[in-house]
Design brief:
With 380 residues, the protein is of the alpha+beta class. The chain contains 15 helices and twelve strands. A hairpin with a 3-residue loop joins strand 10 (191-194) and strand 11 (198-202).
Length: 380
């Protein structure tokens, strides 16, 4: 019996609804409508690569490939665990509890059941249930807390260049909301993504980049986190049902406290699987736009052997420690394609904080009203 599943080819940002069925020595992945074959995976090369401790349907992967498969159906996971000994962890995953709650009936109980079932099924399923306006509020609170007292870079041409590229990448991924990139003056050498389609870069990263392709590589990597909803999934995983119920009832009162204490930032720390997915998506998006895609691996190679200890590293490119040789090899591409920035754009980005103290920069204050966007990067 085939089960509905989601297939990520590891090359594009597309998510394909598929069926999955173990056959003789292979796992067949096909489109339910016409039963056309999407992929054939040798059963011995299929492995569990998701977080089986937190997610009821961890990712499956194929050795030597960036492709991913999620099979929500418990019976299908049981069959797969029998077909391949290395997949036995699938059978140990707890089924969703949402159906038990649904028996009580009633609108509110049904809604709570959906949320509870989402938690039991893991962040992969619960994250889309969090309304975007709440994600945006969370992202803004973390942003305000993080940059409070720091100098924000305000060079218009540089911000326009990086935001224009970010939104080109977003459109290439089919992302329908605008993305905002802001730049904090100084260090550490880092960049990270917040809920609500916000990215924060530190100018030390730009200053330390060998060329624009490295900055574009990091930007594309962060776009991978946006595309896969990693920031909100991290919050769901960290806070579980309590946070979801607070969001459900419109409770904002605790958000500022959490953000100022740094715990929201820690919750945004990406695991290795998130990082691998963001790497693969970032490379694919650059290649889709025919832009140089070698910058991710060369930037990571420069970070090998280094590690920052700043609090802000919790949610950024250091989330799973310095990039490993495996990640560098997986993202290595030839230096072909068009430059991601024109010469003028790259110069503007390098000077985004101004060449003199106080030039092209504004000090951020935590007390900025929530509706004040005067220091936000322009949306493209």
């Amino acid at each position: 019996m085939a089960a509905a599943a989601r297939y990520y080819d590891g090359v594009t940002a597309e998510v394909i609804e598929v069926g999955a069925k173990p056959g003789i020595g292979e796992l067949l992945i096909f489109r339910p409508g016409d039963f056309s074959i999407v992929a054939r995976w040798p059963i011995g090369d299929v492995m569990v690569i998701g977080d089986s401790e937190h997610e009821a349907a961890p990712f499956l992967g194929l050795q030597g490939s960036d492709a991913r498969l999620v099979v929500p159906d418990p019976e299908m996971r049981r069959q797969l665990s029998i077909a391949a000994p290395q997949l036995k962890a699938l059978a140990a995953v707890r089924p969703a509890a949402g159906r038990r709650l649904a028996q009580f009936g009633g609108g509110l109980v049904m809604l709570l059941a959906v949320f509870w079932g989402g938690i039991e099924f893991g962040s992969e399923y619960a994250a889309p249930l969090v309304p975007y306006r709440l994600q945006a509020r969370l992202g803004k609170e973390v942003r305000d807390s993080l940059v409070s007292g720091h100098v924000m870079c305000t060079g218009e041409e540089g911000l326009a260049a990086v935001n224009e590229l970010a939104n080109r990448l977003a459109r290439a991924a089919g992302h329908k909301r605008p993305v905002t990139v802001e730049i904090v003056k100084g260090g550490p050498v880092n960049a990270f993504t917040l809920p609500g389609d916000r990215m924060i870069f530190y100018s030390d990263l730009i200053d330390g980049a060998k060329d624009g392709s490295q900055v574009a590589g990091v930007l594309a990597h962060e776009m991978g986190h946006v595309v896969h909803d990693h920031p909100i999934k991290g919050l769901v995983r960290q806070y579980g049902i309590n946070t979801l119920l607070g969001l459900l009832t419109g409770g904002y009162s605790e958000i500022s406290t959490l953000a100022s204490g740094g715990s929201l930032l820690l919750a945004l720390r990406n695991g290795r699987n998130f990082e691998r997915d963001a790497d693969a998506t970032g490379v694919a998006l650059l290649e889709k736009l025919n832009l140089r895609a070698d910058g991710i691996s060369t930037f990571f190679a420069d970070l090998m052997g280094k590690e920052s200890t700043d609090m802000a590293t919790a949610a950024g490119i250091w989330s799973s420690h310095p990039p490993t040789k495996e990640r560098i090899d997986a993202t290595r591409r030839p230096a072909t394609g068009r430059p991601p920035f024109s010469d003028a754009e790259w110069r503007a980005l390098q000077q985004v904080c101004g060449s003199n103290p106080g030039e092209g920069a504004t000090r951020s204050r935590r007390s900025v009203p929530s509706g004040d966007s005067s220091r936000e990067a322009p949306r493209q």
